[in-house]
C-alpha cells in the first residue's frame, strides 16, 4: 500500500467515504446477513467441484471472417464457423464435453490470428470477440488503450441440458470468446431464449488464469455465477443444477493464446 | 482453535480450515478482516448508499462459493478485490440499462438533507458533487480511484487486481484525478504540497502492504 496522499482530490474522496461509513451496529447487521446468506447458499448447493477432462482433438473447420459492420462499441458480424457441432442422441455428458471442450492447437492459432487481424482492422481498439451459436459480436474501445504485453485469452463455455430423469445429454449452447486480459465481455440476451453471458479473465503471474463468469441459461433458470482460478487448457465443470424440469451442466475451458501470430 | 488463533491465522490458513471442516469462525474471521474495506470499495465504485450493502453481501457470497476452487495461486485479497470489482461492473451495466444516466441518479441519492446544520449541509453539497463526479467516470477510472486514491493500494497491487499493467493503472488514476478536478473545481481544498509526480505516482514511502 501507499502512504497518505496530499492530493486535494484524494482528501475529499477520503472524507466522502468517511462520511458514508456505517455505524458499528449497521456493520454488525451486514456481517450477520453475509454469514447467514453464505450458510444458506452452502446448504442449497454451490457450483460443482471442478472435474478435469482430457481434451479431444476432434476435427473442426478453421475460423472464417465473413464481414464487419457498424461503428458502435459493440458490432455484430458474421465471423467464425467452428464447424458442425451436432450432438448424437444418447450421449453421456463426458462424451460430449470431450468432443466439444476447449479448442485444439489448430483452432488456438486460428483464433489468435483472427483476433490479431481484426485488431489491426480496428487500429488496436478491439477488446473482444464472441461467438454464440453462429452469432458473432465484437467489442471495440472508443480509444486505443495504452499498449499492453498481455496475451489474449480464449474462453469456451459449453452448456449441456436434458429433461429431468433422462440419461442422454445434449449440447444446448456454446460460447467462444477471445478477449484481452483486462476486458469484460457481456453478451445480452437477444430473444426469448434469454441466454446472456458475462466473462472476465486475466492471467496471473504464474500462468494460471482467473475467470469470472456469469450466465443466464434460460429465463426460467437462475443466473449461474462462477469465480475461480483455472489451469490453461483444462476443462472444468462450473455448474450443475436444474430448473423448470430440465437439468443443466456448464463446462468451461480457458486457453492463453499466442500474442503474435505470423 | 481458539479465537486468538483464528485472529492470528493467515488468510490461506483460514480458507483451508473452512474448506476442510466448514468452520463458521474461520469464515467470520476472514469476513471481519475485509468487510469494511470491501464495503468502502463497493461504495466508492457505485456511490449508491441504497445498494452498497446488498452488493457487498453478493461479493462475499460469491467469494465464499468459490473458496472450494481457490488454489492459492493468487493472494486471497487480490482475488477478493477482483470478484468485488466484477460484481460492481455487472451492477453498473445493469443500472446503466435501467437509468438514463448515473450522474442524475447520484445527485438525487446523495443530496443534503434539509435538517442538516450549515457545515454538514456544506459537506453534503461537496459529497453530492463528488458522488456525481465519480459517477461520471468510466468504471475503469472509478476502479483506479477506489483502489489507489482511496484504498491506497500501489499501482502494482491495483494492476494485479484489474489484470493490467501498473503503468495503465497510474495512467487511469491520473486521468481520473484530472476529470474529477475539472468537475469539482471550486469545491476542492488547495493542495498542501506537491509530492505527487505528474503521472500520479506517490513519492511517499510505502506504509504497509496489502493484507
Describe, in plain words, how this protein is organized in 3D.
The complex is a heterodimer of chains A (262) and B (211). With 262 residues, chain A is of the alpha+beta class. Chain A folds into two domains: 11-40, no CATH class; 47-256, no CATH class. Chain A has four helices and eleven strands. Chain B is mostly helical. Chain B has three domains: 1-98, Rna Polymerase Sigma Factor, Chain: A, CATH 1.10.1740.10; 110-136, no CATH class; 137-202, Arc Repressor Mutant, subunit A (Orthogonal Bundle). At the A-B interface, helix 1, helix 2, strand 7, strand 8 and strand 9 of A face helix 3, helix 4, helix 5, helix 7 and helix 8 of B.
Rg from Cα of chain A: 21 Å
Distance between the termini of chain A: 41 Å
Give the helices and strands of chain B as they follow along the chain: HHHHHHHHHH
CATH fold call of the largest domain in chain B: Rna Polymerase Sigma Factor, Chain: A
Question: What general outline of chain A do the C-alpha atoms trace?
Answer: globular
Task: Summarize the helices and strands and which ones pair or pack.
The complex is a heterodimer of chains A (262) and B (211).
Chain A: H1 8-19, H2 24-44, E1 74-77, H3 93-100, H4 105-121, E2 126-132, E3 135-140, E4 153-163, E5 170-179, E6 184-187, E7 196-203, E8 209-216, E9 224-230, E10 235-243, E11 246-256
Antiparallel strand pairs in A: 1-3, 2-3, 2-5, 4-5, 4-11, 6-7, 7-8, 8-9, 10-11
Chain B: H1 3-8, H2 11-21, H3 24-46, H4 49-66, H5 76-98, H6 102-109, H7 118-135, H8 139-150, H9 155-162, H10 166-184
Helix pairs in contact in B: 2-3, 3-4, 3-5, 3-8, 4-5, 5-9, 6-7, 7-10, 8-10, 9-10
Task: Name the descriptors.
heterodimer, A: 262 residues, alpha+beta, 2 domains, seven-stranded antiparallel β-sheet, four-stranded antiparallel β-sheet, 4 helices, 22% helix, 32% strand, globular, B: 211 residues, mainly alpha, Rna Polymerase Sigma Factor, Chain: A, Arc Repressor Mutant, subunit A, 3 domains, 69% helix
